[in-house]
Amino acid sequence: MDNLITVVAAVLYFVSIAMIVPGVVNQTGIKTKTVFGSAALAVIFHAWLLGDLIFHNNGQNLSILNVASVASFLISVLMTASMFKARLWFLLPIVYSFSAIILVVANFVPNTFMTHFEHNSALLIHISFALFSYSTMCIGALYAIQLAWLDHKLKSKKSLAINPNLPPLLRVERHLFKIIIVGEALLTGTLITGFWFITDMFAEGKAHKGILSFIAWVVYAILLWGHYQNGWRGKRVTWLSVLGAFILTLAYFGSRFVKEFILS
Fold it and tell me: Transmembrane segments in this chain: where (predicted)?
């Protein structure tokens, strides 16, 4: 049954992509309601699959692939819910492609890391903060990439035509910093709950997560300070946004990847 759910969800994601890409490339209309319907069904089946993969009678399987699939699911949900207001057509194919690929891999590649939230509810709070902060900052990185691309197109004057499927540059910038502010608040919650609830946060094999997460927090704090105090924008904003997301990826997935795939 899980295999069928996986295939259906992946197909729906790619159907959504197939309806978006021609409109973005050819600057033609996109059937927004049809795309939304397909994407909404995809995330519903994605959630169904995650329930089967994670929750078991003997605990919760938080393997690296399952956690990555949860993050991609959260990003897909948030981006799908915002597609009408924010004109995210340039970014949605990237988001849906990643979600489709990671859910297929998570289902067909055996991977297990059992935990027990019923014995440690505080851990669930910390992990929830971590997942939401990571997903938010990944969206911020995507916005930063879109911002850089739009800026490049305007400066190079390769395309002066107004594409109705792309948002204005200044709107993307405003949304980017709103996203980073929310992500920084969630990342702050992640660090606080980690220090408060996890007694061995800096034990051997775990310390890098807290250290890298704090470094990422500092990167985003510098970015926000630079923008609002010194008017930073452009390439500096893009690089710092992507760097912060990359550091968080190393913090959350780096050692887990080595342990579960390379050393196993």
Answer: 6-25, 37-56, 62-81, 88-109, 129-150, 176-198, 210-228, 237-255
Q: Are residues 57 and 109 in the same domain?
A: yes
Q: Are residues 130 and 153 in the same domain?
A: yes
User: What is the reported pLDDT for 157?
Assistant: 64
Can you list the alpha helix ranges (DSSP code H) found in the chain? 2-26, 32-54, 64-81, 83-86, 92-108, 121-156, 169-197, 207-230, 235-249, 255-257
Residue range of the domain that includes 259 = 120-264
Residues 156 and 89 in one domain: no
| Distance between CA atoms of residues 223 and 79, nearest Å | 23
Q: How far is CA 223 from CA 17, 64, 156, 232, in A?
A: 32, 29, 26, 8
Domain check: are 25 and 107 in the same one? yes
pLDDT for residue 260: 59
Are the C-beta atoms of 240 and 223 separated by less than 8 Å?
yes
> Do both 83 and 206 map to the same domain?
no
Residues 157 and 52 in one domain: no
Q: What is the pLDDT of residue 214?
A: 93
CA 212 to CA 216: how far, in whole Å? Answer: 6
Check: CB of residue 95 under 8 Å from CB of residue 135: no
Looking at residue 160, what is its pLDDT? 47
Residue 199 pLDDT:
65
Number of domains comprising the chain: 2
CB-based contact 256:127 (threshold 8 Å): no
Instruction: Give the pLDDT of residue 112.
Output: 83
